[in-house]
Request: fold
Amino acid sequence: MRKIIIYIALVIGICFIIPIFLTVKFKVKEVATENKIILDIEKYAYSDFGTIRLLHKNTSEIEEVPLDEYVTAVVSAEIPVDYDIEAIKAQSVATRTYTIYKIIHGSKHENADICDDASCCQAWISRENRIEKWGENGIDNMNKIIQAVNATVGEVITYEGQIINAFFHSNSGGKTETVSNVWGGTDLPYLQAVETAGEEEYSQYSSEVTFTKEELLNKLKESYKDIQIDFGNNESIKILELTDGNRVKTIRLGNKELSGVEARRIFGLKSANFNVTIKDEKITFKVTGNGHGVGMSQTGADALAKQGKTYKEILSHFYTGIDITKFN
Ligand SMILES: [Zn+2]
Reply:
């Protein structure tokens, strides 16, 4: 009798339950196909970004500029023109990608896609002003930038078919940083901490800032009114934790614990990669690198170009697992 029950249970299992599992699995697959993610590259045409609305912060004027003309102006403002052409091409693709990402994902500005303020969006300078500032080599320099932009027209950086948020900065200090360590939130797979050799050769690699004890306290008081530091105690100013990119994650300053990013802001440091020493009346921050450290490092791009890397190899170094995709 018991055996019969087991047989019946087995038959029910084979005939009904297993097919239910198979059907459910099959249905899930179907739904996934129906809700297929449309890739940015399929969704948009290059002509969708033909003209961008550029906000001039000083005058509040909005200017309509062809995309690649805007990219040329930004590249001429953002990266030293004596860098290797492959580094400038890498900057051109990063700038174009960053711009289109901003347009797709919503601008910070009303009625404009992007502004000309480096601390908000991207640096920008008019062609005439740029040539004038370069002086003697103005025209040749501009031609070099135009050549780099033209060589990459239509190209953007994508990750699994989606246009990426292509952050860039001046000098990584040897290692870039993950997004969450700078702006919080969740990390992005294509923005990992990566190491680059040769960045120490550039002037942007190291800097130093010194304060008296009083100056240091006054700077802190602007943000933390109840700050107290016992300078006689060796433990009162101490780096407590580092990030994946070797930057300061947490620093103790008297009765406060601050993030490295916050300390960088308060003391006006070039990066959050620093150490701090107290000698007599002076507190000195020795800083490595320049900028937030996320994405492509410009000096790193130049160092890689001088080692013989192409702009595509440079971009793949700084943005993990990406493709360079050309719009039709
Ligand atoms: Zn802006």
About this structure: Residues 201-288 form one domain.
